[in-house]
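Quick one:
INPUT:
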């Protein structure tokens, strides 16, 4: 089946309603088991020694005194991991090799009978360092005189490679047309440069795991993760194990947002368990979370856009530079692909540079790479609207991508909802509401690709008529409820009759990570097909009961029914009826489905923000905020609205307050929520969410992922609002009060000079 013929227009009974989430009671009563809640008999406590230097050669590690301490059962360093691994950078990030490459880089670990003994043992480990110069700024890291992190690194993607080592890992380029010719056609050209600082996902639950690994290579791992199959793959590689020998179970997760899609402590816990012969538990402190788990990238971006006087964009160019931490793999490719994805352009070009710096390796953070790109592009689009004296929504509508548009990153769009979001924003009361003194209104658009991926689902029909659904995608946003709704819809039964659970790696086929806004789309698609498979079997059982051909039976409204009166005068059999007699008609009834899903359907959003500026302090307060986003089909509208609101809030925090602050030696200065300030309820208005539904052709119910797009527009939306209120264009994120005051002062100085 192609991705273009999956959607089937239909009326829904369960889908689109707002039932209670199945995990809610366990979470509010404290029954739910999170990563740090898991224990085992004889369990040891692990602790990790981390480098205090951002860049240093590790000359010697002496663990003798730590090993002699009473209560210490194991000490591991890099030598305790596999020598030949596929994921070298992952191993390097989990346990440093020849060099420590960032403040907080793991260099050794201990397992002891208590956390206090483990901490004491860490102090007894003697590490001899040769400290090297560090670089944390992306533009400085690209400089000719920058300290080099990896002596053998050369830039991929260049026509001619340099012989000298560099911090530039890769160059990416996207686009079509002739941008030089396009700029010659322009009546107005606006060029700007922008910077954004790295931010952390800010999940409340720190990384935690419990590992048990015998010397025979068989082990178990419990951890808070967005992808336990990927954890199994990485850990098996780093420890030289067969994947089948390692069973990984995903605990409940207290937030991830992309930050729990890789491993940090899990391989270390397994190495300690193998060496000690006992289960080992590791829980990161908040300081460790900030210093040693992946934030997003910081960036530096140049943008140039040319337009006709009527607002038609004739050419667009962006040069994006992202640092991805100490190892290659920043999301600059996604940034370069998504930068102009909202626009129908004849001439467009983006160049992206993946740069390493002395920071922890970045991890995904909701639509990785896209918010920074959108901040730069949407700020320039807003400035162009001002210079042309054109409504900023009208300018976007004039150039908006639609079905048939060739995207700036290559493919041609099918049905998309960008124009619907813009029209809804323009017609919403928020857009025409009056503004008060020192207030400004901003608008911006955002895009995300979405993803399908490898997915396996198993569905069982129980003898009492209830249905169990085993999925392999950890639930980080209410997906168990949405999956249950789709199964209930397909089988024609009540939502309360379906229970979805997260299977471990030993009991279900492979599933890709819960990321890319893929779960409701891909797992939902697989669950629907699994339900259809089960329904087909139940029709066969009914046919057997009635003694008629199976193709003479159809499944409708939760019952097996004869196709017509010609098939026989039989009363319909309910799912419960068929399940109760399953033992006499062939045995257990189950439905399975495996797929590498395509057709995820891209996603667009438009945001409006009203901001009030305090001209004396530079503080910006969000007074009103509205999100308009295409969900394809909202399976559980409350969770969809929650995703819209959550992404907006995180984007607002990124825009106004959040940033990693390093000193000149590359040491993180604000590794904790006291100094790294995320928004709290009192900082925000209620985020209004408007759900639009342009069905995705690639899903039977029209679903599009919604979890990531909502974080893309806020940086630009808030920046455009502040720029309107302050009367000066803001080009650096976060727009903290000192930066805003500095921008205001620059205007006053310029006016005085005139």
């Amino acid at each position: 089946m192609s991705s273009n013929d999956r959607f089937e227009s239909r009326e829904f009974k369960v889908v689109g309603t707002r039932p209670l989430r199945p995990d809610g009671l366990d979470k509010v009563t404290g029954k739910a088991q999170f990563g740090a809640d898991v224990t085992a008999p004889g369990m040891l406590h692990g602790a990790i020694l981390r480098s205090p230097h951002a860049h240093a050669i590790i000359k010697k590690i002496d663990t003798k005194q730590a090993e002699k301490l009473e209560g210490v059962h194991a000490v591991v360093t890099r030598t305790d991991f596999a020598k030949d691994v596929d994921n070298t950078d992952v191993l390097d990030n989990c346990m440093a090799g020849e060099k420590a490459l960032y403040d907080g880089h793991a260099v050794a670990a201990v397992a002891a009978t208590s956390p206090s003994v483990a901490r004491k043992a860490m102090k007894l480990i003697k590490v001899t360092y040769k400290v090297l110069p560090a670089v944390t700024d992306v533009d400085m890291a690209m400089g000719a005189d920058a300290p080099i992190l990896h002596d053998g690194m050369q830039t991929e993607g260049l026509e001619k490679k340099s012989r000298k080592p560099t911090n530039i890992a890769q160059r990416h380029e996207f686009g079509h047309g002739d941008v030089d010719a396009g700029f010659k056609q322009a009546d107005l050209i606006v060029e700007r440069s922008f910077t954004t600082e790295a931010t952390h996902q800010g999940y409340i639950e720190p990384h935690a795991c419990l590992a048990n690994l015998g010397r025979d290579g068989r082990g178990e791992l419990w951890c808070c993760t967005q992808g336990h199959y990927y954890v199994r793959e990485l850990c098996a590689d780093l420890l030289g194990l067969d994947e089948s020998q390692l069973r990984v179970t995903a605990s409940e997760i207290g937030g991830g947002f992309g930050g729990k899609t890789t491993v940090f402590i899990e391989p270390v816990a397994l190495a300690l368990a193998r060496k000690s012969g006992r289960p080992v538990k590791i829980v990161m402190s908040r300081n460790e979370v900030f210093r040693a788990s992946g934030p997003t990238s910081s960036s530096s971006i140049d943008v140039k856009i040319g337009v006709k006087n009527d607002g038609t964009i004739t050419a667009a160019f962006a040069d994006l530079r992202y640092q991805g931490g100490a190892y290659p793999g920043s999301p600059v490719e996604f940034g370069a692909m998504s930068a102009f994805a909202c626009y129908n352009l004849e001439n467009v070009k983006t160049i992206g540079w993946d740069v390493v710096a002395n920071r922890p390796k970045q991890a995904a953070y909701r639509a990785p790479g896209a918010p920074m790109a959108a901040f730069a592009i949407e700020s320039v689009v807003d400035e162009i609207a001002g210079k042309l004296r054109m409504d900023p929504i009208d300018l976007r509508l004039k150039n908006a991508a639609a079905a048939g548009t060739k995207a700036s990153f290559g493919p041609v769009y099918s049905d998309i909802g960008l124009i619907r979001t813009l029209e809804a924003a323009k017609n919403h009361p928020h857009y025409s509401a009056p503004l008060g003194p020192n207030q400004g209104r901003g608008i911006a658009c955002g895009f995300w690709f979405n993803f399908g991926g490898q997915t396996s689902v198993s569905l069982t029909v129980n003898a009492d008529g209830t249905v169990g659904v085993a999925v392999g995608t950890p639930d980080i946003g209410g997906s168990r409820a949405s999956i249950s709704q789709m199964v209930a819809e397909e089988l024609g039964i009540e939502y309360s009759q379906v229970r979805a659970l997260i299977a471990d790696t030993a009991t279900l086929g492979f599933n890709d990570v819960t990321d890319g806004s893929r779960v409701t789309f891909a797992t939902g698609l697989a669950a629907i097909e699994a339900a259809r498979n089960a329904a087909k079997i139940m029709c066969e059982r009914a046919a057997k009961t009635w003694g008629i051909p199976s193709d003479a039976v159809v499944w409708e409204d939760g019952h097996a029914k004869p196709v017509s009166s010609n098939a026989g005068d039989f009363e319909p059999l309910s799912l419960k009826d068929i399940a109760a007699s399953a033992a006499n008609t062939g045995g257990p009834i189950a439905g399975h489905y495996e797929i590498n899903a395509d057709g995820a359907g891209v996603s667009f959003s438009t945001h409006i923000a009203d901001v009030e500026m305090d001209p004396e302090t530079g503080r910006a307060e969000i007074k009103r905020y509205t999100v308009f986003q295409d969900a394809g089909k909202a399976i559980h509208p409350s969770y969809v609205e929650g995703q819209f609101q959550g992404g907006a809030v995180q984007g607002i925090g990124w825009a106004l307050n959040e940033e990693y602050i390093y000193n000149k030696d590359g040491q993180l200065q604000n590794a904790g929520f006291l100094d790294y300030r995320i928004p709290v309820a009192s900082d925000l208005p209620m985020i209004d969410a408007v759900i639009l539904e342009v069905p995705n052709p690639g899903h039977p119910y029209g679903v599009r992922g919604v979890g990531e797009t909502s974080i893309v527009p806020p940086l630009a939306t808030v920046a455009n609002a502040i720029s309107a209120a302050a009367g000066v264009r803001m080009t650096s994120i976060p727009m903290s009060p000192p930066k805003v005051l500095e921008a205001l002062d620059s205007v006053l100085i310029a006016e005085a000079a005139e």
